[in-house]
Amino acid sequence: xxxxxxxxxxxxxxxxxxxxxxxxxxxxxxxxxxxxxxxxxxxxxxxxxxxxxxxxxxxxxxxxxxxxxxxxxxxxxxxxxxxxxxxxxxxxxxxxxxxxxxxxxxxxxxxxxxxxxxxxxxxxxxxxxxxxxxxxxxxxxxxxxxxxxxxxxxxxxxxxxxxxxxxxxxxxxxxxxxxxxxxxxxxxxxxxxxxxxxxxxxxxxxxxx
Length: 209
Description:
Shape: globular
Mean pLDDT: 80
Low-confidence stretches: none
Largest sheet: 2 strands, antiparallel
Structural class: mainly alpha
Number of helices: 10
């Protein structure tokens, strides 16, 4: 094994040579975005997928409250992935119940959960990313709407903007032509993700006007 180290690190700085130590950088300091990446897949029944979307809604709700009330910016590094709705204040839970009710009442969401739970082949990262991006506008509108009704947020213009860019029904038509045993579809969903990213960029520009 060979690693280029500076004289400062070897001798005076960290005494790596004296201590017989070597520095291994964490993944976020490496210059290769694929370094340390793990190929994962998702598979489960309808309960598993519904719980995944429920937790996604909870994280989105938490981030929205932090951004609007406390003024905290959205940040990937401290995304509240480990939060739970249990043990939260009653008012917060009541709002989240309304968010879930509106979200899961939509036919396209029910159709998506049924499709994902009936899949025979594994769902890989690009496809899961695509579906999460597909539901994002609608999920966010559910959060904003519930917070509006509770008096936590009074800007209604964002709802009309989210509705304009909500293409969940159009994308859900893909489910009708996707067989349950589809495989090797990462390239296709990567292409779909690029299209959604372009829509997201346009949405940001509209929001800043």
